[in-house]
């Protein structure tokens, strides 16, 4: 396979403020399909995604959850990554804006822009929208609310650093004018030119003093770097960009980005602020920013607070990962918003995946088994119908290529579905069950089934970026090693292998009413689903020695803020035990109290002090507070807990 060169694709980095809904997840699935497709064509692809973890909103949410911001984002980022992994996305790096390498460069970027005079200090007064992390002027507000999200704004006045965007406006305008493909779709480009560039770019406020959770400005530490400067930089820091020029190999190889895939709401940041940052840093500009439309639930915006949010993991539980990938990619139009509901998804799975794709594969394999014991031979005869059939199959990769080049993924999928429909029609036209009745039609029947299996193979190769697992299953059922794109250059590369004699249906047909009843029962369950640990034997439990003890002394660990050091009396001995509850108790409160300790746990050192056991405690779900398991004062010390 010829190497077509490098291809660097990124998604927006998701706010680590909550679980990503199907709209956010759509974006990574779309990027994944493009990345997989490009790899298949022979591109050397680097694919980056990740999380945007700083800012006031996250600081507030962490506080409400009784956690430090870092503890909070650790949990959120893990959940986001879990969903992206569940959806089988093949990213190369999952960057977090709390990663050390990223933060170090953000500090340096800010300093460089300041040193060269692009950033200056002044004072700001404006309307601030916390969820969008954006300042607005009076005239920008719509009905007194945030023009982006329609939520409440509040007045904020603070000393701030500002970025002189206007200095680079002309160069950016020229770049946009000379690079038609830079802002896509075209309609978004006009929006940027008319609404922002024509009126003239205002200086951008790029630091905050009203909260702490961000990358500090190191030469003025009461300021933190504006979350968008921090977030946008991920596209270069993730590759090892270095302000001082000691760039990593990935940066040298993959920058500039070939595609920033983002949603329509953040085009302004990516096509105005980001290129201007890069111009100021003297870094080449990305080749394309594609602002995809949004996924709606019915006709409404997806919103957790409205209670209409749909999540990819719930969908996958019912329909499988590939069906979810298929649905969102097929259903999202190029420029208008798309729609998802559970009912629509069931309809689409039945109409496309079960009836067309799954059914085609299943009956072709079944017929190959029934009429030829699963093994065809390379003896063919070609009719006019076959010629036309082959031409249609052979033309499909080209159509898909054209659609994918324009990022019309839904149209590319439709072309592959057309191929499968053509195959199904070919079955009707050739009626293999009739051919099977006459011994004299054996070659014809062999030809028909071969053409179908080869047609299916073409479709499965082309569909691999969309539904990788399904394609793998089809290749296995066909027992073919020809899974590569080059094998689509001519018709007839299917090896005529023995197909599986146990074809499993790729997609089951769903009964809409029954499935919806199951969906409702599932969604109506209380939100927290308890994850149980695997069952253990009584003997396993019996290995743990738990004993009641009395706290004789309790003090803070000299070198670890969260830890208390206990001296506990068990009657026959006293032990030093450490426990991470310093945030929740004053040491003196605990002296004299009775606790339960595990005594036969291997001792370990925590910051220089030895812990010879463990005190039982429980963490409250609601606010993350940890409480020791205290037992009543008349319980005898040394009592065994069982
Ligand atoms: O905007 N349908 O993060 P985010 C499709 N951290 N896409 C949607 C969507 C929907 N209903 N709702 C949101 C941020 N998105 C910033 C990005 S990049 C340097 C910083 C898209 O978690 C949204 O447009 O709010 C964005 O591209 C992505 O999901 C993450 O959104």
SSE map:
Blueprint: E1 6-11, E2 14-15, H1 22-41, E3 44-52, H2 56-64, H3 69-86, E4 93-96, H4 100-115, E5 119-129, E6 134-136, E7 154-163, H5 166-178, E8 183-184, H6 186-197, E9 204-205, E10 207-208, E11 224-225, H7 227-232, H8 234-237, H9 249-254, E12 259-263, H10 267-281, E13 289-292, E14 295-297, E15 300-301, H11 312-319, H12 321-331, E16 338-340, H13 342-372, H14 384-405, H15 409-430, H16 432-435, H17 442-463, H18 468-478, H19 512-523, H20 538-542, E17 546-556, E18 564-569, E19 574-579, H21 587-590, E20 594-598, E21 604-606, E22 609-611, E23 614-615, E24 617-619, E25 626-628, E26 630-631, E27 640-641
Parallel strand pairs: 1-3, 1-12, 2-3, 3-4, 8-13, 12-13, 14-16
Antiparallel strand pairs: 5-6, 5-7, 7-9, 10-11, 14-15, 17-18, 17-20, 17-27, 18-19, 20-23, 20-26, 21-22, 24-25
Helix pairs in contact: 2-3, 5-10, 11-12, 12-15, 13-15, 13-17, 13-19, 14-15, 14-17, 15-17, 17-18
The structure holds ligand ME8.
Residues 12-15, 23-24, 26-27, 52, 231-232, 262-263, 265-266, 294-295, 302 line the site of ligand ME8.
Annotated CATH topology of the domain at 341-516: Isoleucyl-tRNA Synthetase, Domain 1
Radius of gyration: 30 Å
| Overall morphology | globular
Strand content: 15-25%
């Amino acid at each position: 396979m010829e190497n077509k060169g490098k291809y660097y694709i990124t998604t927006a980095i998701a706010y680590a403020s909550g679980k990503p809904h199907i709209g956010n997840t759509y974006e990574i699935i779309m990027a994944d399909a493009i990345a997989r497709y490009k790899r298949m064509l022979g591109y050397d692809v680097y694919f980056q995604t990740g999380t945007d973890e700083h800012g006031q909103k996250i600081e507030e949410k962490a506080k409400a959850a009784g956690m430090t911001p870092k503890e909070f984002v650790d949990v959120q980022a893990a959940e986001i990554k879990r969903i992206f992994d569940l959806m089988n996305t093949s990213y190369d790096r999952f960057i977090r804006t709390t990663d050390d390498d990223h933060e170090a460069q953000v500090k340096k970027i800010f300093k460089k822009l300041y040193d060269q005079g692009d950033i200056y200090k002044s004072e700001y007064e404006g309307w601030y929208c916390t969820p969008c992390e954006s300042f607005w002027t009076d005239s920008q507000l719509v009905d007194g609310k945030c023009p982006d999200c329609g939520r409440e704004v509040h007045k904020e006045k603070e000393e701030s650093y500002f970025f002189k965007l206007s200095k680079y406006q002309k160069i950016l305008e020229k770049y946009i004018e000379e690079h038609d493909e830079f802002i896509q779709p075209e309609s978004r480009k006009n929006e940027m030119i008319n609404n922002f560039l024509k009126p003239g770019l205002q200086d951008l406020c790029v630091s905050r003093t009203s909260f702490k959770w961000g990358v500090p400005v190191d030469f003025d530490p009461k300021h933190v770097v504006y979350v968008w400067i921090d977030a946008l930089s991920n596209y270069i820091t993730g590759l090892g960009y270095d302000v001082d020029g000691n760039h990593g190999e990935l940066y040298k190889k993959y920058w500039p980005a070939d595609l920033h895939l983002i949603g329509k709401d953040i085009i302004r940041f990516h096509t105005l602020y980001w290129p201007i940052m890069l111009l100021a840093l003297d870094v080449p500009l990305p080749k394309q920013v594609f602002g995809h439309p949004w996924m709606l639930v019915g006709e409404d915006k997806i919103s957790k607070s409205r209670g209409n949010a749909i999540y990819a993991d719930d969908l996958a539980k019912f329909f499988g990962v590939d069906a979810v990938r298929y649905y969102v990619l097929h259903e999202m139009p190029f420029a208008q918003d798309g729609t998802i509901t559970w009912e629509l998804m069931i309809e689409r799975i039945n109409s496309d995946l079960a009836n067309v794709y799954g059914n085609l594969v299943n009956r072709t394999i079944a017929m190959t088994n029934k009429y030829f014991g699963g093994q065809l031979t390379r003896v063919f005869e070609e009719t006019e119908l076959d010629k036309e059939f082959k031409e249609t199959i052979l033309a499909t990769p080209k159509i898909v290529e054209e659609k994918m080049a324009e990022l019309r993924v839904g149209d590319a999928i439709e072309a592959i579905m057309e191929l499968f429909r053509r195959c199904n029609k070919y079955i009707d036209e050739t009626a293999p069950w009739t051919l099977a009745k006459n011994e004299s039609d054996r070659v014809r029947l062999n030809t028909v089934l071969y053409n179908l299996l080869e047609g299916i193979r073409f479709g499965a190769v082309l569909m691999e970026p969309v539904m990788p697992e399904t394609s793998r299953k089809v290749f296995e059922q066909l027992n073919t090693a020809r899974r590569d794109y080059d094998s689509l250059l001519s018709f007839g590369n299917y090896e005529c292998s023995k197909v599986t004699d146990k074809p499993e249906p790729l997609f089951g047909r769903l009964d809409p009413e029954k499935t919806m009843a199951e969906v409702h029962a599932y969604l109506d369950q209380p939100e927290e689903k308890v994850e149980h640990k695997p069952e253990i034997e009584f003997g396993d439990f019996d290995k743990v020695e738990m004993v009641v003890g009395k706290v004789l002394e309790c003090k803070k660990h000299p070198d670890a803020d969260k830890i208390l050091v206990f001296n506990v009396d068990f009657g026959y001995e006293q032990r030093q035990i450490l426990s991470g509850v310093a945030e929740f108790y004053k040491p003196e409160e605990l002296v004299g109290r009775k606790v339960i300790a595990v005594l036969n746990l291997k001792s370990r050192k925590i910051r220089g002090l030895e812990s010879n056991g463990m005190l039982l405690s429980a963490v409250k779900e609601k606010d993350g507070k940890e409480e020791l398991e205290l037992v009543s004062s008349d319980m005898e010390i040394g009592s065994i807990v069982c």
